[in-house]
């Protein structure tokens, strides 16, 4: 998928670093302003042209001082003090004499000692501003003397800020922590206290004045002591069961895994891989999966990009980088070819685009699809910057919304019970809200702004109010539909002003490059995970197994990050640790692996968790990952809550390695005999022991490359 390449950022003063935590626009719709230079003078720019550089750094009315000190005086470098005036052009005093410059004439007299002071015309300062001359002066890395330029009073621009064309984005001085949202988030605390996202554990042992242990909670729930205590205790129990890093089962695939999700009732799980196959599993017993069936996307391009299960679990829709969506029955007895849904077919509403499979390519690719709550429609986000809605009864697209300025990477319905509200997240850094009941002018109902890089995923809580998003600016954000930006306000803003040329596929993200969005209208910002290499996904935790307490996201560093609503870290599932070296090297399976710096590596075991799914009724997380030597293969790992138990009394044993059909495969071990029955396997299991605790009925009743 194409990376966002905005036009050159408009140079100006930097925003207030604290503005990210508040709604910038007020009720009147007045735009928020950038701070004056005196408010935020620690921003360091790299001008793109000599012209802008002159205007930016060398105002003739501005004094620029530079003072030279010799190493003999005990100084470690050289400091130059310049002063620009309108009278005498320049003077210099040093131990070799005094030189006065007036126009083109020079006079020199003898003096001794003291630092050097030079007054030079603006033209000389413009020459010194040239990038090549800057590099000549900024030579302390090579062992020479460093240079410190003093602009105004007290503002230091160190020589490593002038690095030529490779430094294109604005940077802040080190130690400026106000640019990031505060943690814990005050707004998030209010949400946690309000009861919408879980319940607070106010219940304590009155005699010991200590937190109630799990065993006591279970006893209180069974006894039902106290009015309403049973249900509250059950909710507190379920939301405290965060799965551990120990892997129950490691399902190995011979290609990268891109996504995997449980059905809403938890009885079904599917995983999508780069070999254009979707595997389905029976998870009615979440601790003992059974292989179901496999469906194929014919003539796919690069990978399967997304899949969505119908509400009744009877149909699975899956897409590739084409305008065709495949629709296959989940019935294991059905072995026919999938139905092909051409999203470019608008019927009488527009021109039919006839080239799909038969033409050899599509006019657009599909990055994201979702079934509606009633199962009658599918919404898709595409590479032609549009959102499509496909009607399954008429077998054609009934709505096309060209509402973004870049690829639409993620779409979803806002309410599980209504198909009217749609959300779309794009590489243009915005999330747009569409109300299909009032689209006569083809305009969005509102906009969420706050991300400074493109969106990778959007998830709805299903209540028509809260939305979650992941962004390439390495943040996950929570939004409230009631606080979206009005369309009139958004139309006056250019989102490309607040973004950069960061390429998340091949680069690492430097926090010094982060600038808070001056019009951020999000409620809570979550940081810590890494959104690199691919479109990493995020989700709300289910109500049944977690009491809707958390939000969670995959990460490029090989973990699943679980956050409280106040942006604090509640837990982390380390998939890389659980799967490290869990299959031998196989040169035939190697694919090119790109390091962030652009290099290639085939020697290291690496893990990138692209998607994760929390079981709706049991404390289990299934993580789908790019995982293996050179990150060229994939895994789906299951992780359950174990309450810190050291022994495993269940079957099958922990850390079991199986193939994509859940069958034991000797090729997954370096030495099958010793690995299966000897020390090597037992040693591996001893590191990953946990005790399974099945979810009870009472818990369930307490509710819920860019490639």
Automatic annotation (TrEMBL):
Biased composition regions of type Acidic residues, renumbered to the chain: 33-60
Superkingdom assignment: Eukaryota
Keywords (A to Z) from UniProt: Repeat, WD repeat
Basic residues bias spans: 168-177
Keyword Repeat: yes
Recorded coiled-coil stretches: none
Gene3D superfamilies assigned: YVTN repeat-like/Quinoprotein amine dehydrogenase
Comp. bias intervals (Polar residues): 99-117
Any GO CC annotation of this UniProt entry: Cul4-RING E3 ubiquitin ligase complex
Keyword Repeat: yes
InterPro entries to which the protein is assigned, alphabetical: DCAF, WD40/YVTN_repeat-like_dom_sf, WD40_PAC1, WD40_repeat_dom_sf, WD40_rpt
UniProt GO BP: proteasome-mediated ubiquitin-dependent protein catabolic process
Placement of WD repeats on the sequence: 366-400, 401-444, 448-489
Annotated spans, Disordered: 1-60, 85-117, 146-192, 660-681
SMART domains documented for this protein: WD40 (SM00320)
Protein name: WD40 repeat-like protein
Source organism of this protein record: Imshaugia aleurites
């Amino acid at each position: 998928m194409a990376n966002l390449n905005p036009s050159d950022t408009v140079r100006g003063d930097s925003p207030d670093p604290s503005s990210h935590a508040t709604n910038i626009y007020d009720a009147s719709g007045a735009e928020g302003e950038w701070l004056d230079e005196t408010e935020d003078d620690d921003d360091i720019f790299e001008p793109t042209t000599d012209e802008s550089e002159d205007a930016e750094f060398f105002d003739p009315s501005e004094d620029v001082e530079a003072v030279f000190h010799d190493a003999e005086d005990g100084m470690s470098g050289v400091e130059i003090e310049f002063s620009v005036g309108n009278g005498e052009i320049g003077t210099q005093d040093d131990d070799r004499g005094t030189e006065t410059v007036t126009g083109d004439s020079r006079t020199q007299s003898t003096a001794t000692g003291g630092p050097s002071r030079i007054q030079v015309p603006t033209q000389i300062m413009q020459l010194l501003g040239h990038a090549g001359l800057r590099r000549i002066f900024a030579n302390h890395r090579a062992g020479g003397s460093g240079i410190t330029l003093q602009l105004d009073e007290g503002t230091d621009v160190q020589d490593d800020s002038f690095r030529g064309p490779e430094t294109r984005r604005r940077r802040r001085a080190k130690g400026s922590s106000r640019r990031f949202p505060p943690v814990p988030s005050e707004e998030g605390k209010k949400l946690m206290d309000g009861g919408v996202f879980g319940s607070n554990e106010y219940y304590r042992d009155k005699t010991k004045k200590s937190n109630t242990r799990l065993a006591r909670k279970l006893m209180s729930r069974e006894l039902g002591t106290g009015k309403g205590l049973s249900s509250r205790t059950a909710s507190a129990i379920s939301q405290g069961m965060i799965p551990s890093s120990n892997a129950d089962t490691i399902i190995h695939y011979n290609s990268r895994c891109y996504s995997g999700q449980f059905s809403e009732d938890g009885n079904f799980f599917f995983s999508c891989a780069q070999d254009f196959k979707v595997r389905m599993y029976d998870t009615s017993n979440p601790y003992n999966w059974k292989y179901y069936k496999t469906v194929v996307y014919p003539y796919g391009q690069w990978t399967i990009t997304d899949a969505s299960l119908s509400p009744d679990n009877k149909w699975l829709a899956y897409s590739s980088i084409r305008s065709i969506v495949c629709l296959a029955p989940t019935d294991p007895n059905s072995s026919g070819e999938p139905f092909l849904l051409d999203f470019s077919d608008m019927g009488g509403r527009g021109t039919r685009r006839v080239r799909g499979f038969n033409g050899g390519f599509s006019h657009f690719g599909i990055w994201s699809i979702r079934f509606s709550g009633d199962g009658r429609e599918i919404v898709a986000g595409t590479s032609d910057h549009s959102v499509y809605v496909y009607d399954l009864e008429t077998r054609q697209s009934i709505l096309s919304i060209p509402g973004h300025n870049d690829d639409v990477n993620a779409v979803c319905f806002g309410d599980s019970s209504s198909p009217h509200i749609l959300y779309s997240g794009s590489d243009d850094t915005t999330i747009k809200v569409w109300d299909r009941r009032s689209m006569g002018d083809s305009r969005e109902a509102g906009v969420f702004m706050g991300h400074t890089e493109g969106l990778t995923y959007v998830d709805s809580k299903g209540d028509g109010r809260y939305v979650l998003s992941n962004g390439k600016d390495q943040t996950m954000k929570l939004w409230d539909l009631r606080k979206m930006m009005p369309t009139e306000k958004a139309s006056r803003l250019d989102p490309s002003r607040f973004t950069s040329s960061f390429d998340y596929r091949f680069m690492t993200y430097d926090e010094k490059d982060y600038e808070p969005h001056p019009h951020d209208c999000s409620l809570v910002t979550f940081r810590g995970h890494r959104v690199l290499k691919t479109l990493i996904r995020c989700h709300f935790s289910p109500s049944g197994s977690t009491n809707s307490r958390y939000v969670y996201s995959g990460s490029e560093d090989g973990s699943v990050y679980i956050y409280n609503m106040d942006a604090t870290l509640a837990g982390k599932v380390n998939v890389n640790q659980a799967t490290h070296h869990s299959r031998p090297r196989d040169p035939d399976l190697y694919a090119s692996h790109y390091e962030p710096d652009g290099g290639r590596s085939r020697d290291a075991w690496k893990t990138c968790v692209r998607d994760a799914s929390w079981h709706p009724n049991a404390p289990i997380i299934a993580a789908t990952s790019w995982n293996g030597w050179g990150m060229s293969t994939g895994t789906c790992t299951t992780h359950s809550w174990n309450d810190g138990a050291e022994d495993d009394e269940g079957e099958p044993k922990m850390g079991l390695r199986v193939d994509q059909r859940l069958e034991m495969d000797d090729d997954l071990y370096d030495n099958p005999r010793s690995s299966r029955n000897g020390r090597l396997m037992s040693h591996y299991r001893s590191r990953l022991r946990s005790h399974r605790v099945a979810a009870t009925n009472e818990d369930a009743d307490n509710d819920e490359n860019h490639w």
